[in-house]
């Protein structure tokens, strides 16, 4: 989704990731790794979505 720029769907998937035990640090690591392949602008947008998903409710 990140490489295709499909950010509208990303929050739902991040919520599922969180429910399945993926930590915030792990998500940050994955997005950082992807940034070198998809480009920093897309990674930064994904990072903002991840921040929102892992923000305390």
Automatic annotation (TrEMBL):
Q: What organism, scientifically named, is this protein from?
A: Latilactobacillus curvatus (Lactobacillus curvatus)
Query: Record's Gene3D superfamilies?
Result: AhpD-like
Per UniProt, residues of the Carboxymuconolactone decarboxylase-like domain are 3-52
Bilayer-spanning residue ranges: none
Q: What is this protein called?
A: Carboxymuconolactone decarboxylase-like domain-containing protein
List the InterPro entries: 4CMD/NDH-1_regulator, AhpD-like, CMD-like
């Amino acid at each position: 989704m990140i490489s295709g720029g499909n950010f509208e769907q990303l929050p739902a998937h991040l919520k599922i990731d969180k429910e399945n035990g993926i930590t915030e640090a792990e998500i940050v690591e994955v997005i950082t790794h992807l940034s070198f392949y998809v480009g920093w602008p897309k990674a930064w947008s994904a990072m903002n979505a991840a921040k929102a998903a892992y923000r305390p409710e």
